[in-house]
Design goal:
Oligomer: heterodimer
CATH class of the largest domain in chain B: Alpha Beta
Strand order of the largest sheet of chain B: 3-1-2-4-9-8-7-6-5
Strand content of chain B: 25-35%
CATH topology of the largest domain in chain B: Rossmann fold
Strand order of the largest sheet of chain A: 5-1-6
Order of helices and strands of chain B: EEEEEEEEEHEEHEEEEHEEEEHHHEH
Organism (chain B): Ancylobacter dichloromethanicus
CATH architecture of chain A: Orthogonal Bundle
Number of strands of chain B: 20
Strand content of chain A: 25-35%
InterPro entries (chain B): Hpr_kin/Pase_C, P-loop_NTPase
Pfam families (chain B): Hpr_kinase_C
Structural class of chain B: alpha+beta
Shape of chain B: globular
Helix content of chain A: 25-40%
Protein name (chain B): HPr kinase
Distance between the termini of chain A: 8 Å
Shape of chain A: globular
Number of helices of chain B: 7
Number of strands of chain A: 6
Radius of gyration of chain B: 19 Å
Keywords (chain B): Kinase, Transferase
Chain lengths: 93, 300
C-alpha cells in the first residue's frame, strides 16, 4: 500500500525495544537487526503504538516542533518509508 | 564423586569434571545432572538449529559432534551423553563445558558471551574476541598476578537488577607456545582435541564461586597494517549491541528457545551501564603487554 498523508500507519508488534543512553533501540529478532531511534524518531515511534493517520501525526509534531508544515510532512513521510522498508510498521487504508 | 560448582548451579556428574570447583554453597539438590546413556540421533519433533544441533518445543537441545558424541540437554537440567568410542574424556568435557553450557544458558535466559573473564577489584572484567586473539592468554597473565579466573570460554552473564558474571571454572585452553612462553610446561596437561597443540591448564587456586558485577568488557582484535593500536571506548548504542550479539554464543538459539527478549534486555542493560572497549593490538605482540593499560582503564 502506498504511503501518503492520508494513510493510516501502525507499528508491527514484533520488535523488542529498550532505551540505551539517548537512543531508543529496536531489535527485530526474526531478522536479527538492530535499529536506533533518536529522540524525535522515538517520539514518532511511541505515537504509532495506536493506528494513526499521517496528517494527524504531522499536526501533532507541528505543535511540538518549530518547523514549516511542508518540511515536517516531508521528513515524516521519509522516516515512515524507512520504517516500512524494514517491516517495522504496517500501512493501512 | 563430589558435586561441582558451575555458574551457580550444583552439578552432579557420572564422569569426572576436574575443571570444576567443588560445590560448597548449600545443601540444595543438584540443579544439573550428567549421565552416560543412550541418546537418539534425532530429537522427535525437533527443529534444526544447525547441521549438528536440534531443538524441540520443550526447549530440549540435542548436539551431535562428529567423532566425539551426542549430547541431550533437557531444560530440567538433565544431561545425557552418548560418547563415541574414539572420543577422549577431555573432548567430551570440552563440549559439555562449552557448547552444552551455552545451551543451558539460553534455556535459562542467561547471556553466554564468548570470552574469558577475570576478577578485578571486586568486579568482573571480560575479554571477548575471535579464537586466537588472546583471551585465554590475558586470563593466564592476570591469574599469574594473583587475580581470580571466572571463565575462559563461555562467560555467563545474568542481568536482573544489575549485570553479574556467574563464575564457571578456572580452566584455560592454551596453545603450547603460550604455556612455554609463560615458563610453564605442558607435561601432564590434557590435550584439548586429539592431535592439537592446545592444552587444558587448570588454575584451581584462582577459582571463585561468587557472582561478581560486570565492570568492563574488552573486545580484542588484531590491528590491521598501518592501523593504530590501543584501547578505545565504544559509545554508539548500536555498535555496542551489534558487538555483544556477535560475541554471543549461538545468538539465534535464544530465538528458538523463546528467550530472545531476555537476552535483548540483558545486552541493552550492558550497553547502558557497563563500559565496552575495543583493544586493538599487533598480532605479533604479546597480549601481556596490555595488562597495566587494561587495569588502568578499568579503574578509570
Amino acid at each position: 500500500m502506498a504511503l501518503s498523508r492520508i494513510s493510516e500507519v501502525v507499528r508491527r508488534p514484533h520488535p523488542l525495544e529498550a532505551a540505551v543512553g539517548d537512543t531508543q533501540v529496536l531489535l527485530d529478532a526474526e531478522q536479527g537487526l538492530y535499529f536506533g531511534l533518536n529522540a524525535v524518531a522515538a517520539g514518532i515511534w511511541r505515537r504509532l503504538e495506536q493506528p494513526l493517520r499521517v496528517d494527524d501525526l504531522c499536526r501533532m509534531l507541528g505543535a511540538e516542533y518549530a518547523a514549516a508544515p511542508a518540511r515536517i510532512e516531508e521528513d515524516v513521510l521519509a522516516f515512515l518509508t524507512r520504517l516500512e522498508a524494514q517491516n517495522l510498521i504496517e500501512i493501512r487504508a | 564423586m563430589a558435586d561441582g560448582y558451575l555458574c551457580g548451579w550444583r552439578i552432579r556428574s557420572a564422569i569426572p569434571l576436574p575443571e570444576l570447583m567443588p560445590w560448597t554453597v548449600d545443601e540444595r539438590p543438584a540443579d544439573l545432572t550428567v549421565e552416560i546413556g543412550e541418546v537418539p540421533e534425532r530429537l522427535p519433533g525437533g527443529r534444526e538449529a544447525s547441521s549438528f544441533l536440534q531443538v524441540d518445543d520443550d526447549g530440549a537441545c540435542l548436539l551431535g559432534v562428529p567423532e566425539v558424541g551426542r549430547f541431550l540437554v533437557r531444560p530440567s537440567g538433565a544431561i545425557t551423553i552418548r560418547p563415541l568410542p574414539e572420543a577422549s574424556p577431555a573432548e567430551i568435557r570440552l563440549f559439555l563445558l562449552g557448547s552444552v553450557l551455552g545451551f543451558i544458558c539460553h534455556q535459562h535466559g542467561l547471556l553466554p558471551l564468548h570470552g574469558s573473564c577475570v576478577e578485578m577489584d571486586g568486579g568482573a572484567v571480560a575479554f571477548c574476541g575471535h579464537s586466537g586473539v588472546g583471551k585465554s592468554t590475558l586470563a593466564l597473565n592476570f591469574a599469574r598476578r594473583g587475580r581470580r579466573v571466572l571463565s575462559d570460554d563461555v562467560c555467563v552473564i545474568e542481568s536482573v537488577d544489575q549485570v553479574l558474571v556467574r563464575p564457571s571454572f578456572p580452566r584455560l585452553k592454551l596453545w603450547r607456545d603460550t604455556i612455554e612462553d609463560a615458563a610453564l610446561s605442558t607435561e601432564g596437561l590434557e590435550r584439548n582435541r586429539r592431535g592439537q597443540e592446545k592444552y587444558h591448564y587448570l588454575v584451581h587456586e584462582a577459582g571463585f564461586r561468587e557472582p561478581l558485577p560486570l565492570r568492563a568488557i574488552f573486545l580484542l582484535r588484531a590491528a590491521g597494517p598501518g592501523e593504530s593500536t590501543g584501547i578505545e571506548r565504544l559509545s554508539d548504542a548500536l555498535d555496542i549491541l551489534t558487538a555483544l550479539t556477535a560475541q554471543t554464543f549461538r545468538p539465534r538459539l535464544s530465538q528458538l528457545l523463546g528467550k530472545a527478549a531476555q537476552l535483548f534486555q540483558a545486552r541493552a542493560r550492558i550497553a547502558s551501564s557497563v563500559p565496552v572497549f575495543t583493544l586493538a593490538r599487533r598480532p605479533d605482540s604479546p597480549p601481556e603487554l596490555w595488562l597495566n593499560d587494561i587495569e588502568a582503564t578499568v579503574r578509570g
